[in-house]
Amino acid sequence: MGVKERKALERQNRKNQILDAARKLLFSSGIDSVSINKISKQAELGVGTIYFYFKNKEQIFTALQEEGLTLLYSIIFKISETKAPHEEKLRQIALSYYNFSQEHKNYFDLINYFLTTPKVFFEPDLKNQIDMSGNKILLIIQNIVAEGSEQKVFKEKDPQKFSILFWGALHGLTHFKKFEKTILGNQNLEEIYEFSVQRLIYSIK
Amino acid sequence: MGVKERKALERQNRKNQILDAARKLLFSSGIDSVSINKISKQAELGVGTIYFYFKNKEQIFTALQEEGLTLLYSIIFKISETKAPHEEKLRQIALSYYNFSQEHKNYFDLINYFLTTPKVFFEPDLKNQIDMSGNKILLIIQNIVAEGSEQKVFKEKDPQKFSILFWGALHGLTHFKKFEKTILGNQNLEEIYEFSVQRLIYSIK
Amino acid sequence: MGVKERKALERQNRKNQILDAARKLLFSSGIDSVSINKISKQAELGVGTIYFYFKNKEQIFTALQEEGLTLLYSIIFKISETKAPHEEKLRQIALSYYNFSQEHKNYFDLINYFLTTPKVFFEPDLKNQIDMSGNKILLIIQNIVAEGSEQKVFKEKDPQKFSILFWGALHGLTHFKKFEKTILGNQNLEEIYEFSVQRLIYSIK
Amino acid sequence: MGVKERKALERQNRKNQILDAARKLLFSSGIDSVSINKISKQAELGVGTIYFYFKNKEQIFTALQEEGLTLLYSIIFKISETKAPHEEKLRQIALSYYNFSQEHKNYFDLINYFLTTPKVFFEPDLKNQIDMSGNKILLIIQNIVAEGSEQKVFKEKDPQKFSILFWGALHGLTHFKKFEKTILGNQNLEEIYEFSVQRLIYSIK
DNA sequence: CATGAATGAGCATTCATTCAT
DNA sequence: TATGAATGAATGCTCATTCAT
User: Fold this and answer.
1) pLDDT digits over D135-170, tens only?
2) Pick from A134, A113, A165: nearest CA to B182
3) For chain A, which domains are there?
């Protein structure tokens, strides 16, 4: 192994060391209590070192969000690889998204953080990077729909548009978790979620 | 006008003065830069005075969010009162929600803030107040669907569930605005939005 | 009842109303969370009214401290009135002081507040008032010792000095409660307290 | 001198710089007016810097109190090392405690602050640290009594308990300084103090 | 008598970031 | 590369007191 490779490896190790610390903080106390100083303490590194490997806090968050998206992707990918009927795949993907929002709440908060922050300035590279992670997931859904349509299981002519509707709807519904005790009344969100999935799938059959 | 009335009026005026300041800040620099100290400066009042009229920062945000929800409600209510066919009403409501998210971005950011912040410490009263404002909007949609179903224009048996799906989907889709240049590729969100509305309405016809 | 008397009575009622509120706050959340604003809310009176009846916060605290001292006095007075032997009386007084410090912690904190605050400015009247309340208690002890000496049960020639030593020692010991888990090691303070009382009494026998 | 040593030295210097500032404030205007902001201004450092060296305000107070206890310890230790008779040592220790309470009033106020504040949230480590400083002083007294008892000068079987009584009594008596013009009447506290010391010592002879 | 609106200095603490070493 | 000392603006919030009505 040459000097260059070793350097690159060490570099990656350090980055991971930092992300490990950030992740640990994120999971133990939530997004609001992740600060650079705390990360540096947790990682047993100087704050300066953190800034050597990450330009700013946003970049660390981005990396963590990518982790979350990758995890989500792998879950959804697995479903897409099964032999289940197309319809069933969509249903399972939808359900797994709901589960992800509950069981990986911290990652989900992070995704929402990036999705809802009105911050104007966002480095284009960073933004692109995140969006592409999201896109991969969208493509899975899109492919299932497209494939289903080819095989005449579905009758959707615009799989891309539909996949955005599909995911957008699921995403929007997760936010209604906060209304479970109020607006939703005696129903729980999961019920409504399943109803919605049913309807969305039905609409392309 | 008696003393009591005048006092009550002055009280409301002051409250408005504070909300004006808060709104101005919110609209000029975004939610993150609204602080009590800044509000007090903007309103030309002591911070103590702010706290005399509002228990805490959250309450000011709540009031502002209610403004936004009231505005949204009035828009949607107007549509519901027209003589347009049910289907058309839903379409217009959907469209107006999209427009609201773009034209009243600051109110919309505020709504998203409350919807996605992982903070829990929200006072039940405040939360209930907001949720009920949201509920009023939901009920309009629900009524249109219910009425449409009664008149056999729609065939939806569960108008409540469907209205949640409807609004949730629209809401989720607005978040994709951020992906317009990346994931959405050459399409713009409005197109997809209209496609989605079409599909959702179609699913109950 | 003439106008004057009624006025005086009303005046006292209002004062009590205020003290009731202050006491309630003191007992429910401790000395640090008693503020004029809170008192006024609790008493359902305007803050201005509070200031009409009490010159400042200190005066309210003084009144409450007097309550505490009066309560303490009544406890000690009762003991002094029994037929118990002088020695036994002293022992019981000592014990009741310890109990008072534990069971009426809030009053005791208040006493300590006045006793340890390094504040320079203290209105002479106020100070005198408090001191006299303390003096009454001291006099009881002093009388018991004096009487005991007259009857040759004790051999103390200077009952005043001894009573100050007696009370001062007891008071100082109560502060060691904070050391129970550290300096005091495996002993508890009560044990040491009793030991001390024994010694002090023994020293005048 | 290596880099490490120099760093450590500088660190200590900064800490002292902060403590100097805190001490100056404490001594010039009393404990109530020591705030972190004031310290930072006095020390000509940013507030953040204060927090870099001390975890919180309490820790600064702790350090200052330790200074006081160390000073007191050194005074008492010197006495314990003399060739004076045991009895005389106790007398001198007692007297020096009184003098300390008058001449180093600010340190004494600090000690009282920690001893009487009803605040609970004290960190165990900090509390232990302080208590151990106090314990060292107590042990000196205890040893003198124990040694005296071994040599049959005293007849105390429980030196620990007695040393607590001894110190507790002296400590309690210092609080009566406030009563010099009122309860104590024509006597001054020093007189009573000496009387008390005499009695306490006499009780173990 | 009674009110309650208004004050604004003050509080302890956190933060992302910089930069000389 | 790596460090960690230093910053100081900023945060939400409390407080005793005043005073015009």
Assistant:
1) 999 999 999 999 999 999 999 999 999 999 999 999
2) A134
3) 1-54 (1.10.10.60), 61-202 (1.10.357.10)
